[in-house]
């Protein structure tokens, strides 16, 4: 049962990764990439690796998403000048 849930989450992760690549808007790509990171946190929890899941949640989902959003906001401000 756990393996089936892991495979389903893996397919959803691949779907979100493809949506991040194919999205026309950068903000949508960032959101899809963040969803991929959050699903990888769930995969790590299923694999019984909570320390790796916490690290992925903090760095992959939180820090990288905020860095991408701040970079996107900076790009829009510099483009307006």
From TrEMBL:
Quote the subcellular location field of this record.
Cell membrane
UniProt-listed Gene3D superfamilies: NADH-ubiquinone/plastoquinone oxidoreductase chain 6, subunit NuoJ
Q: Which positions fall inside the MrpA C-terminal/MbhD domain? A: 12-76
Annotated transmembrane regions: 6-23, 30-47, 53-75
The topology of this chain with respect to the membrane is: Multi-pass membrane protein
Asked if Iron-sulfur is a keyword of the record, the answer is: no
- Matching InterPro entries, A to Z? MrpA_C/MbhD (IPR025383), Nuo/plastoQ_OxRdtase_6_NuoJ (IPR042106)
Q: Which UniProt keywords apply?
A: Cell membrane, Membrane, Transmembrane, Transmembrane helix
Sorted alphabetically, which Pfam families does this protein's record hold?
Answer: MbhD
Does this entry carry the keyword Transmembrane? yes
Gene Ontology cellular-component annotations: plasma membrane
Can you name this protein?
Answer: Membrane bound protein complex subunit mbxD
């Amino acid at each position: 049962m756990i393996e089936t849930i892991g495979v389903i989450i893996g397919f959803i992760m691949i779907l979100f990764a493809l949506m991040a690549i194919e999205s026309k808007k950068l903000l949508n790509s960032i959101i899809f990439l963040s969803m991929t990171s959050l699903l990888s946190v769930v995969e790590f929890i299923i694999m019984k690796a909570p320390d790796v899941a916490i690290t992925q949640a903090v760095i992959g989902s939180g820090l990288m998403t905020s860095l991408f959003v701040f970079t996107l906001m900076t790009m829009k401000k510099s483009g307006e000048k």
